[in-house]
């Protein structure tokens, strides 16, 4: 990503598909849609408004592959072995690249990000891992992204710093730039209680990614990480992306929710104001759970 390049990305893919479009996603996995004509059509319909927004703003478009669950342990729950996952990860990058072209985007303004999700639950600390184990686990997905021509790898909703390091190591081995996105709880800390400043320092000390993002937390939750700070700390310049939830609910409440809390798009945008003051390098803006193109457009119009 070039210095100063602004990139529109999408909102809450899975929650939009489930609650707004009535599409069943077992295990919260969108990647099986790539295997069906109707599924690919649904994904194109979902992504098209974001491409139009980027074109209208004169910004770049970051297309995330729908592969957050396309890793071995989650894939196994859906009956997919290593060969099936490799095939769908390859197809996902090809789909994302074709999507940008089909929406009339200049190829120079479209980046394809191979999206990686956590091995375990994205909200609850699980079995401890090592960076070596995590690298081996995520390497097949990263290699598929590289082979298919992805521009970058991004791991979302991470809470395990060793897993973050492992993703970085796998990406470096495949020659791809990599972004790491941590998720935060309502107190502005990782779900295991770690401060984001410490999490970034811990990962950077071992295997620094190209940049960081924060996702799957409401803007007011993220703001708690900066409580009492007058000036942006040095680590904030490493955070290039923000993908917040529409809901102010905690992760535990979201896990139990049977309805979609999509909040108010205009308020969602204004709640980002404090984040812009504390995160001066922000260039990638989109949404996460509960958001759709209304939220992302409202956010970008306010930024513009």
From TrEMBL:
Is Metal-binding among the key words of this record? yes
Q: Tell me the Gene3D superfamilies matching this sequence.
A: Homocysteine-binding-like domain (3.20.20.330)
Coiled-coil stretches noted in the UniProt entry, renumbered to this chain: none
Q: Where does Zn(2+) bind?
A: 216, 288-289
Provide the GO biological process annotations. Answer: methylation
Residue ranges of domain Hcy-binding in the record: 1-303
Instruction: Cite the entry's keywords alphabetically.
Output: Metal-binding, Methyltransferase, Transferase, Zinc
GO terms of molecular function = metal ion binding; methyltransferase activity
Q: What's one Pfam family here?
A: S-methyl_trans
Q: Which cofactor does it need?
A: Zn(2+)
Q: Report the protein name in the record.
A: Hcy-binding domain-containing protein
Lineage, highest ranks first:
Bacteria, Bacillati, Actinomycetota, Actinomycetes, Micrococcales
């Amino acid at each position: 990503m070039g210095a100063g390049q602004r990139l529109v990305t999408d909102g809450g893919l899975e929650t939009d598909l489930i609650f707004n479009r009535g599409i069943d996603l077992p295990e919260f996995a969108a990647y099986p849609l790539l295997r069906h004509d109707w599924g690919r059509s649904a994904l194109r319909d979902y992504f098209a408004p974001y491409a139009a927004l980027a074109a209208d703003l004169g910004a770049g478009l970051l297309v995330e592959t729908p592969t957050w669950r396309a890793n071995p342990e989650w894939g196994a729950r859906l009956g997919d072995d290593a060969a099936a996952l490799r095939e769908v990860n390859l197809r996902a990058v090809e789909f994302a690249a074709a999507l940008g072209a089909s929406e009339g985007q200049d190829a120079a303004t479209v980046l394809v990000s191979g999206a990686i999700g956590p091995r375990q639950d994205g909200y609850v600390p699980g079995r401890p891992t090592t960076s070596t184990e995590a690298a081996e686990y995520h390497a097949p997905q990263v290699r598929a992204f590289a082979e298919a021509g992805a521009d970058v790898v991004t791991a979302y909703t991470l809470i395990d710093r060793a897993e973050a390091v492992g993703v970085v190591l796998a990406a470096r081995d495949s020659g791809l730039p990599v972004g790491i996105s941590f998720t935060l709880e309502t107190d502005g800390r990782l779900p295991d209680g770690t401060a984001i400043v410490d999490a970034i320092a811990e990962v950077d000390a071992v295997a620094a990614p190209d940049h960081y993002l924060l996702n799957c937390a409401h803007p007011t939750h993220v703001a708690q990480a900066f409580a009492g700070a007058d000036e942006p700390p040095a680590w904030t310049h490493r955070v290039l992306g923000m993908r917040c939830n529409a809901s102010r609910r905690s992760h535990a409440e979201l896990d139990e929710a049977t309805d979609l809390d999509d909040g108010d798009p205009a308020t969602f945008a204004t709640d980002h104001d404090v984040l812009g003051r504390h995160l001066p390098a922000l260039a990638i803006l989109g949404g996460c759970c509960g958001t759709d193109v209304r939220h992302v457009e409202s956010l970008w119009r306010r930024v513009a």
